[in-house]
Design brief:
Layout (H helix, E strand, L loop, with lengths): L1 E8 L4 E7 L1 H6 L5 E5 L7 E9 L4 E7 L3 H8 L5 E2 L1 E6 L10 E7 L3 H13 L3 E8 L8 H6 L3 E6 L6 E2 L2 H11 L4 E5 L2 H13 L4 E4 L15 E4 L2 E4 H4 L2 E3 L5 H9 L1
Parallel strand pairs: 8-9, 8-12, 9-10, 10-11, 12-13
Antiparallel strand pairs: 1-2, 1-6, 2-5, 3-4, 3-7, 4-5, 13-16, 14-15
Length: 258
């Protein structure tokens, strides 16, 4: 049992929970995720760790309510408990001093992107972050991102905040004005597809996180298999991050519809 320490609602369907998990808090690295269960017969939900506090023994999770299980998790209040939190799982992000790293997040994808932004900055990189959402209300963790970024660009589909336009417009703006050595993108699969197509045109190495397709989280169910470089890969054990220019996004989008 893992106690909920605090709760914050970002929007009607997006909630941040700080959860007691001392061993995970000490061991986790950027890119790792956990499997969460609410109730003895609850569904296993993979969630990327957005932050951790080893001293307090807590991890931070950002959950989007899209079904019964995630709605139950989002309904929990401080003092209540998650039945299970297992992790850290997956492969950690490759953190190096690349030079200039452009970190691009859409919607709740900003949550798993945040620890990567922090780690890239700590490694000595210049970090430019592009945050995108349909409206202002869907831009999350902006203050935390700004604290570890050299520059932040906000894009909204409706123009209610930042610059009106798609995330790719913000990414291209950065690539045109300065040399970008690495791009990391996390968000809806369709967003990552078009970011990847753009960065491929400019020949900028790009990593994409495919955490949205994970189900079991241990490689047993096979639901997270994707084609990367013409080979079948399992996101939960070999990822969740892969070379974006080698991912078959059309296959991924088709599988997500299932």
């Amino acid at each position: 049992m893992n106690k909920i320490v605090s709760k914050q609602r970002f929007s009607e369907n997006v909630t941040k929970l700080v959860v007691e998990a001392p061993l995970i808090a000490k061991a986790r690295r950027a890119g790792h995720f956990v499997i969460v269960r609410c109730g003895e017969k609850g569904e296993r939900i993979p969630l990327t760790i957005a932050d951790s506090d080893p001293a307090a023994g807590t991890i931070t999770l950002v959950i989007q309510a899209v079904g019964d299980s995630t709605r139950k998790i989002c309904a929990l209040e401080p003092g209540e408990f998650l039945t299970d939190v297992v992790g850290p799982l997956g492969q950690a992000t490759r953190i190096e001093n690349y030079g200039t790293v452009l970190c691009c997040g859409g919607g709740v994808g900003v949550a798993p992107l945040l620890p990567i932004i922090r780690a890239m900055k700590e490694a000595g990189n210049r970090v430019v972050s592009v945050l995108a959402g349909r409206t202002k209300d869907l831009i999350i963790l902006e203050d935390e991102v700004r604290a570890s970024s050299d520059d932040v660009i906000i894009m909204t589909d409706d123009g209610s905040y930042g610059t009106k336009g798609l995330v790719t417009a913000g990414v291209e703006e950065v690539i045109k004005r300065e040399k970008v050595d690495k791009v990391v993108t996390i968000g809806p699969a369709i967003m990552m597809k078009f970011v990847s197509l753009l960065t491929k045109k400019y020949e900028v190495p790009t990593e994409a996180s495919l955490n949205a397709i994970m189900v079991d989280g241990t490689g047993m169910c096979g639901a997270c298999r994707v084609s990367v470089g013409g080979k079948t890969r399992f996101v939960c054990v070999e990822g969740p991050e892969f070379d974006a220019h080698e991912i078959d996004f059309d296959e991924l989008l088709m599988r997500l519809k299932m």
